[in-house]
Design goal:
The chain has 1 helix and 9 strands.
Length: 121
């Protein structure tokens, strides 16, 4: 009897963990960089294979570096990366105003002073 109860508890705990990771509002899996505020993230490097084919390495507050490509999400406000350039990551965030209406806001994440390469403002 206790073995069956332990299995049931393990299954329920596993389902709960999946529910935390899955964002029901967006009907998609939540990325690792979506748990942090934008101000807590730092662009470490940008690599371009060709023109308009760039990806970035972003450092989170816990010290982990994440690979970021256009189309992925960043920040707590469902920021979707539109474009990655040599000196900045451009993305659009969703905000809800006091009337309950959602609106988009364009934003960018630039290199911090510590990681800024030559030629970037």
């Amino acid at each position: 009897m206790s073995l069956a109860r332990n299995r049931l508890f393990s299954a329920a705990l596993g389902a709960f963990a999946i529910a935390i990771i899955f964002d029901a509002r967006a009907s998609r899996w939540v990325g690792a960089l979506e748990q942090f505020d934008i101000v807590d993230l730092a662009v470490v490097s940008v690599h371009c294979r060709r023109v308009n084919d760039c990806y970035a390495n972003v450092l989170d507050p816990n010290g982990f570096v994440h690979h970021l490509s256009p189309g992925e999400f960043i920040g707590r406000n469902q920021g979707k990366v539109n474009k990655i350039e040599k000196c900045a990551i451009h993305f659009v965030e969703l905000y809800k105003n006091s009337d309950g209406v959602w609106y988009e806001k364009e934003n960018e994440l630039r290199f911090s002073d510590e990681y800024r390469p030559a030629g970037c403002p």
